[in-house]
Specification:
Number of strands: 0
Protein name: Putative retrotransposon hot spot (RHS) protein
Structural class: mainly alpha
InterPro entries: DUF7578 (IPR056000), Trypano_RHS (IPR006518)
Number of helices: 34
Organism: Trypanosoma cruzi
Mean pLDDT: 84
Low-confidence stretches: 1-28
Strand content: under 5%
Length: 614
């Protein structure tokens, strides 16, 4: 059928159409939108038959006989025995042969039921059995308007649903995060429906009320059509009307944008740029159109900043984890900070310099290498000069040099056998480390030792809350509820209380109970020892240690006399040989135990009495 015939479909004012079915109802609440989607979800598919759509799924109307049709629609009027076996298909060919009454014949042929059956018969003869074939049918104007409208409505509903689903897929894609392995095509087309791949006949159905449809164009895509519209719609009048519509202008603009993006993808692929990671190191960014370049740079910056944010979160989580004496020096010094020295130069230039200075040769260069000799990696003096005058450059250089300084500290300490915090505790060369770093390490070490001290005190408190019995040891009674500082290491004490003065590696395993017997043996420097001995902390610790050593001596002597447990102390005759304070402590605990036993015995007696035992 010619384009002229196709163009005769009743149109209305297609220029007046401004709102496209391609637009989604994104301004509606989600729940409302879901309910609307359920109610408007099409019941047909492209493979649905024309017969099913027009007859509502009825299986017997299309093959009915003439008399059956008359009985169903006209209450037996016109029924004659001679027409009993006449098929409706035969009647369509020559109605006057079977119904001679002109008035009755006019009533029959003008009824909707007749027109539907007639249209089905006509379409079948012209090879139109399904909705898909109707979409590309050029003779829509030869079909009764009511029938044509019904089929077009089903087709429109189906195309709109397909479009809606495509929009939802695009929206879901847009919510998925980008990574450096995301393709350039995916970045540029993410979140948009690719209308360039829409079929021309679908567009004409949805936007032009089927104007201009030709069966020969059944598989033509919009990206092909907009290259040469006259090739696919040769009727100049029809094409002219279509081209004056807002829908045409909007669609042409969108398709050309997409074709432009495809061209960008193709050229970048020719230059070995398929993924976002390769775009990062691409030197030819200036050859890409500004809008597209900004899109790619924006997404790349977003990805790099997300990686940076995740690195910062990891650093925060690391900082919240407890430090112990087995923590490495590197772990202490870099704890809670993102190591920017290991950031790639091109990533820095992307995030902070809008990609200025990027060279593909630098794809794997780290900032710690760059700041040693910037001119080696950015030889263009003008570009480098611009970069070096920025606040971001100065801030990053300062941070990287700080980190490189910390790495040098780690290296030197490792050369001296100091890899862990425990080894730092006993290290005599602390004064060779820069003050800021030394304070950091000493502060963390002090924190660890105080935490160990706190845990020891909590254990002592828990022990004190446990009940004592006659089988409790004398040592357990005397040391109950107190932290035994006599077993603290000398170097730990000097770290916590003396800011590491007097520490010697040789004393790494010396305990305070050994130190206070002969302090000069362990700190031979008289000046340093004198300073330490004048402090309140020294006096307090010496007093506590000597008290504990006195208690240990009591335990030893009692053990020599066969008194290891509280029960044995009860019967011990030599109590007067023990110092009064210690004797009162042991007697007080023993009395408490005996009274508790007495109380329990009385409670048992009461319970027995209540049970009626005599």
């Amino acid at each position: 059928m010619s384009g002229n015939q196709a163009s005769a479909v009743p149109q209305g004012d297609i220029r007046g159409r401004t709102r496209s079915e391609f637009e989604s109802d994104t301004d509606q609440p989600a729940a409302t939108r879901r309910r609307l989607e359920e109610t408007r979800r099409p019941q047909w598919t492209m493979s649905s038959s024309v017969e099913d759509i027009l007859l509502g799924g009825s299986t017997n109307r299309n093959n009915m006989k003439l008399n059956d049709f008359l009985r169903s629609n006209l209450g037996d009027r016109g029924v004659v025995d001679t027409n009993e076996n006449v098929a409706m298909e035969m009647f369509f060919q020559d109605p006057e042969m079977f119904i001679q009454n002109e008035r009755l014949l006019r009533i029959i042929t003008t009824s909707l039921s007749y027109k539907e059956l007639e249209a089905i018969n006509k379409l079948h003869h012209e090879g139109v059995s399904s909705l898909e074939e109707w979409r590309d049918y050029e003779g829509k104007d030869t079909v009764t308007p009511l029938v044509s409208e019904k089929l077009n409505r089903a087709l429109m509903q189906l195309l709109c649903e397909e479009r809606r689903e495509a929009g939802e897929r695009a929206a879901r894609e847009n919510q998925v995060g980008f990574t450096l392995t995301t393709t350039i095509r995916c970045v540029l087309f993410r979140g948009r429906v690719r209308v360039k791949d829409m079929k021309l006949n679908d567009f004409l159905t949805m936007e032009m009320e089927c104007r201009g449809i030709l069966r020969a164009n059944w598989n033509v895509l919009l990206k092909e059509f907009f290259i040469d519209p006259t090739r696919y719609i040769p009727d100049a009048g029809v094409l002219g009307e279509i081209q004056t519509t807002v829908a045409y202008a909007r669609m042409e603009k969108t398709v050309r944008e997409e074709m432009g993006l495809e061209e960008v993808v193709r050229r970048l692929q020719e230059n070995g740029v398929d993924f976002l990671e390769q775009w990062r190191d691409y030197e030819g960014k200036d050859t890409v159109a500004p809008v597209t370049r900004r899109k790619l740079n924006g997404v790349l910056t977003q990805v790099l900043r997300e990686e940076r944010r995740e690195a910062e979160e990891r650093a925060v989580r690391e900082e919240q984890l407890g430090i112990t004496l087995t923590t490495t020096i590197r772990g202490v010094l870099f704890r809670g900070r993102v190591r920017v020295k290991d950031m790639k130069l091109n990533d820095f230039l992307t995030m902070e310099m809008e990609c200025r200075g990027i060279l593909r040769a630098n794809w794997n260069v780290l900032l710690k290498e760059f700041f040693i000799d910037p001119t080696r990696y950015i030889p263009d003096a003008g570009v480098l000069g611009e970069i070096q005058t920025t606040v971001a450059y100065a801030r990053m250089e300062k941070t990287v040099r700080e980190e490189m300084g910390l790495e040098e500290v780690v290296r030197r300490l490792q050369e001296n056998g100091v890899d862990f915090l425990e080894q730092w505790r006993d290290y005599e060369g602390k004064d060779t480390v820069a003050p800021v770093t030394r304070r950091k390490l000493n502060g963390v070490l002090t924190q660890v030792l105080r935490e160990e001290r706190r845990e020891a005190e909590e254990r002592a408190v828990r022990e004190e809350q446990l009940g004592i019995t006659l089988t409790a040891t004398i040592r357990g009674v005397l040391f109950r509820g107190r932290v035994r500082v006599k077993d603290m290491k000398l170097n730990d004490f000097l770290t916590m209380e003396m800011e590491c003065r007097g520490i010697l590696s040789a004393n790494w395993n010396v305990l305070l109970k050994e130190f206070f017997i002969d302090p000069t043996r362990y700190i031979p420097d008289a000046g340093v020892l004198g300073e330490i001995q004048t402090t309140v902390a020294y006096a307090r610790m010496e007093k506590t240690v000597r008290e504990e050593m006195g208690l240990e001596e009591v335990v030893r002597r009692l053990q020599e006399n066969g008194v290891d447990f509280l029960e044995q102390w009860r019967d011990y005759e030599g109590k007067d040989t023990v110092a009064p304070v210690t004797r009162r402590k042991l007697n007080g605990v023993l009395t408490q135990v005996l009274r508790e036993e007495r109380r329990e015995a009385e409670e048992r007696a009461v319970r027995e009495e209540q049970l009626g035992i005599t």
